[in-house]
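Q: What would this complex look like in 3D?
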Amino acid sequence: MSEITGTVYTETVVHAAPEPFVNEAPYQTAIVELDSGGRVTGRIAGERVAIDDRVVQVETRGGIPFFRRMA
Amino acid sequence: MRSVTIVGIGKTPFGAFPDRDLRSLALEAGRKCMKNGHMQPEQVEAFYLGNFAGPAFAGQNHLAPYISSALGMAGIPSTRFEAACASGGSAFFHAYHAVASGVFDVVMVAGVEKMTSQPTARVSEILAGAGDCSGEMRAGSTFASLFAMIARRHMYQFGTTREHLAAVAVKNHANGVLNPDAHMRKQVTMEQVLAGRPIAEPLTLYDCSLISDGAAAVLLAPAERAAEFTEKPVRVLACAQASDYVALEQKPDITTFPAVRRAAQKAYAAAGLQASDINVAELHDCFTIAEIIALEDLGFAARGAGGPYTASGQTALTGERPVNTSGGLKAKGHPVGATGVAQICDLSIQLRCEAGERQVQRASVGLAQNLGGSGATCVVTILGVV
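A: Here is my prediction, written as structure tokens for the whole assembly.
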């Protein structure tokens, strides 16, 4: 299976989380422009990312894609 | 379409009122409005209510007849409108068209929200229901985080700075100090905003509007009947509503709101006016970046120039086009369903020259812009002195 890759379109680090996510804060979310087309809102695992960074999807949790910055 | 006027206005103060429930807030605004418009309940033919999340915040549904009957209007058509933070504006839009088209003569539009009985994390969760709950919100987004992502992109594309965002908060807090009904009557400095607790980077606490309780109401009547109710009618020159995608990721460019542009174009065309004709405005500053983008989408500033335009002082009380003289959602407060109706009240107060210390000179044409969610609904209303 080929990797899902893309480019960070925008991002933020959430400090004040809604109730279901309070224990996970702070965490980074991003809108990723997928190489295969379209955009998806996901979470960032590991090191923080910035706009234009290249990312790869590392897992899906609760229907939400998690991305990590590509080396 | 016939000419429509605002013949009565009424608002509660905005704030955190632990002893007040949703209905008592709506009743206060409705009764003040009827008194202001010298109106008896039996003269009102229909009731339009803006409310975002009464069932979640206050455990009460079926709100429109719940409130209209308590106001002495049992019997008339009473309907709640939900369009996220544009619920009040949407109720006004539909009421305006009912009067303009001759379906009704006299109608009341009210907006109410009771938010402060819930802890902040729960409020964020309820508000998140206005986003795409099968996508962006499942990733842990809040409305602050969606607007933070918008701010990041605006900064990236146009060079908007952290200080530009802060300038919106400083200005609106300064105006809020002069508004006796504002939730937060406190000056803030640029340094305080920049050093504020992070909410969603780059936004701090001071970039975010307030969680408030409050209600507002207006009475509409055809222009030819305005004199029966008031000596100071305000004319509705236009009211337009537009929509867009709910999920931020579906918008091709998140630094502009197509629904705002569409609604503004329709409203300007209907009123026979352009952006340069507007001399006072109440804009939807749910977050500081939202006011900057609204300035651009409404044509007050060039694309990408909303930040520098704000920093230049042109939107301050003494500037060429004062914006959010009420303090805006930022300082006046943001009881979600009430906001769109309160904007109409605040503009009417300016056009009736009743704004006291915050009165704008030569206020003859005003514009209100009420935004829902991250831009999926927008209502633009233009008011003028009769």
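A: To summarize the key features: The first strand of chain A starts at residue 5 and ends at 14. Chain A has a mean pLDDT of 96.
Q: Very helpful, thank you.
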